[in-house]
Design brief:
Layout: E1 4-5, H1 8-29, H2 34-60, E2 69-70, E3 73-74, H3 75-98
Antiparallel strand pairs: 1-2, 2-3
Helix pairs in contact: 1-2, 2-3
Length: 104
Amino acid sequence: MISFTGYGLLLTIAMYGIGIFGGNYIARAMEMPHRVQVIFLLILHLALVAVNYTVAKALNGKGKEPQHTVMGIRLEKFGLVIGGILTLMVLMMVWGEFREVTYD
């Protein structure tokens, strides 16, 4: 069980999930080629991580005691760590899409 204080974690997860789902829907509706969709989702992911960091920073404010934490860590730091891990996964997806496979 993940211990957290405040509603910030739920808000940032909802924002990220809805953003990725909406971006995927938009990319398919615009009938982009698959490789363009992958690049679009990479840019969207980076933008959503930045927005989530900004929202988490605004929720905690400049006070000494953070109001929104996850396992004792400030929400914005936790969001950056998880965003970094997800960025590695997204970059592997992009790399897999653009690498040339040759069979000898």
